[in-house]
Amino acid sequence: MAARTDAELVLGGTAARFDRTGARLFGRERESDAIDRGLRDPDGPRLVLVRGERGVGRSAFTRAAAERLRAEGITVLGVDCVPGDGERPLLLALRLVMALEEHRSGAARRRSARQAAVEALSAVQRGDRAALAEVVVGALTQPTPATVVVEDAQHADAESLALLGEADLRRVPPGTRLMVTALQHTGPDRTEPSSESGRALAQLAGNRAAHTIVLPRLGPKDVTAAVAERLRATPDAGLARRAHRLSHGIPGALDALLVQWADRDEIRVVDRQAFLALGAPVPVLPDGDRYVEALRALGEPCWTVAAALSILWPLGRPAEEWVAASTELSAEAVHDGIRTLVDEGVVDELPGQGGGAVRGWTFRVPLMAHALRERLGPLERGRLSAAAVEALWAGGAPEDPPGRQDLRPPPVAAILAEADAKTYLPDRIADAGVLVDRERAVTELTTAARALYPDHERRGMVRWHLRAVRLIEEPIARDLAILRCGQAAFGCGDYRTARAAAGRIVFDPAEGLDPLALYEAATLLVASAGIERDWPALDRMGTAAWWDGLRLPAMAAVSGRVQALWQLEKWQEALTLLSQTEPVWQSTPDSRALLELFLNVAEFVLGRPDRLTRALALPEVPGLSRDKVFARSVAQLDLLLGIGDLRGATSLLSARELTPELLPESSRFLLHHLQGQWDEALALARRLMVNGGVLTAVPTHHLLPARTAAVLLAQGRTTSADRLVSSVRGRVSGPLEHFLDHAAAEVRRTLGDLGRAEETLRRGLRAAQERGSVYGTDELWASLAEVHVAAGHTGRAAACLERLDLLAEQMNSGRTRLLYLLTSGRLRPDSAAAGKHLAEAVELARSRSQPFETAVTLLAAVRANAGPATLLREAYELFGETGAALWRFHTRSAMREAGVVVPGRKQATAENDHLLGILLAEGLTNRQISHVLRLSEDAVANRLSRLFARTGMLSRTEVVSAVLTGSPLTPDSR
């Protein structure tokens, strides 16, 4: 069995599938134990009333309890109540009698059933509740035990419920029980049910033989577990948090949310992890949804009041008056409508401090508020939003009469905690548009957008900028607002909007627009095209002719053209243009800082690192804005991380007073990778791939997928690594692919395919040579040398080693020097020079403080007899810390060969089994596994046989299933 998406880590992942089959109950352990104890206890309650709000899972809970009873041989009978039953007095009582009597055993069954039915009907016709109660109790006391499940008793007639509430159910024998489910809208702050059926249910709960179980909402942990089961993948923290917030922990709302997201392909699964796509909107519940239908059934004015509250509820108590003012409903109609919405569980009352007067209302299910808001037309939403804006700006109720200060809405900073105080007012301003003061609206929208930057969750920043643009009439001010919008969009990953905004200014700028703004628009346009991998557009932007027809200052045209050449890896052309136009780009601090960075990087990539080395030692350029200082520092940091200089990167962070938490996710990935924190690195990689951030900036362009593939390969996930590299190459082909060539070649080498590995490495070296690139070729030469050593071509390997030696001297890079030393030791393992080189390699690796790199070096030194065998223990621990399972396996083999005791025999066996399971899940044949583990095919077959014997599993399919579901490969795992 070949692994599916669970063993893949591919660009964008796969679409999530919502699965209800075999759904377990989460967060119901205590209630399940309580109902099981009660139903099995001879002295326990004869009636168990299961209550809870709409969607909380009453039916699923009682069905699960009923199935457990059936499994014990107990008969379970069902009686369902439906809307309309309440209009037929004593119907439920009659149906209970019929169900129980039909269940009677023995020859008298039919006769007794007819007799009980006649007696019950007669009592119903006479309205004799006492007689009917006797018939009901008599039916319950039959000798054949059974449990009767009454579903949705809120629809039942009040007379039957009252009858059951008054009946002496203590006479019912232990074998017969009633299990009743009913909707319960009243919250903890409301104890008095308002409807007749509600009062009858309260009376039923008060029966001395009854016990009530109220199902609560799920907490965050249970929501996370439920999402994992529904999606068959572990949810990312962001997805779990948002699911809990929008559903309020109500299972029915949670399922509705997940179904909508899954149907719209908003949830992606990568490496058995589920992620919500960047900027995924809150879905709108369809007309057939239970919550929408329940509100529709209430009719008017409830629907109109609820729709208005979906906009106005965060105003608190004044929302009631604003609803009346905005909908032209009477104050009495609005008051009654809100009262009904509370009684029917659509909204909840928010009690005041110390149990005082109600301070407002909130929707019980946030998804419902969104569904109502989205169903409003633009005019309705604009009018209601304008009312909210005016209320918050004015700080008072519509007329704010004397003595009504208690109705005054809170200031913006104190909006009800249940609302999002950062987004509520700007969202309302954006919806109100021209219905509120334009100037103030633009100011507040811009201020709110800046405060939310960079808005990675896309909560509204770009939308507010766009709305502000629509409200600005003066051309220059509008263009500046468009530029701010584009820059904000770029910062939160909305590159399409960023490019459109930049293009609008570049192609048709307002007369008199500041040259610096045009420069920033040009650089934003090229940067967005680069992030979108639009190589044809960048090719055009790299020519002078493309810029000649535009009304741009020379500084903007030069900067944009250089940046396009830089994105295309046309380093020498970029350097020539920079040399020819130096007076132009040196004219402002912004252009000078940016293009000097381009100059330094271009020379570094071409093998001239001195200028960049000096620049890294200098303080930041004065006169730059904070965001540009930050962007420049991140670019320098990524380059250091790309060449494996962890110490240099750490020093830069310290000098620039930056913490890892402030860095972009792609930079944090590279940092975690070098630090050996691979779990954290993979978590970031998954999220970046789902959200389209698979590529970092030039020249570290393909490092994220290349380094991720390296991690997967070190874990033994060869197929996953290969698919990742292939998917990136197939979708985003372009410059700097030699990083991907190195990763692909390592996969081929691990699988024993030396011919394809050599071919791939030479392709990468040719591509780099065509562009004059030196950056990143050290890894290609080192791998090519090892391929030649494995193939027995020592002369070719020596030629590669010479190139590595020259590179190490030319680039003055610790990484390149270490690669040269390790390659030299492997080429001539028994020579004195190898011993000297590997000893130096160990010292250099330790000074670089990178766990995986250090462990690889220690293992190489011992294998070449250049270090004591005790170093293997240290390498073994370091491989364990990073999670490099395949390297840890090879180190165990080396330890046994060297006579070094492997610690934890039981753990070692478990790790061997798990690695073997991973290789099977990757779809490898025995021959491929033998290459990966460096064993004979017979040895692999023996290991598989022992694995099956230890675990009790009978086939590869069972092992793969256990690996993909995360089950341990232990003797009892079957």
From TrEMBL:
Keyword entries, A-Z: ATP-binding, Nucleotide-binding
GO BP annotations, alphabetical order: regulation of DNA-templated transcription
Example of a GO cellular component annotation carried by this entry: cytoplasm
MF (Gene Ontology): adenylate cyclase activity; ATP binding; DNA binding
Keyword match Calcium: no
One Pfam family of this chain: AAA_16
Domain of life the protein comes from: Bacteria
Ranges where the Orc1-like AAA ATPase domain occurs: 24-165
InterPro entries: AAA_16, P-loop_NTPase, Sig_transdc_resp-reg_C-effctor, WH-like_DNA-bd_sf
The name this protein goes by in its record: Orc1-like AAA ATPase domain-containing protein
Organism: Streptomyces lacrimifluminis
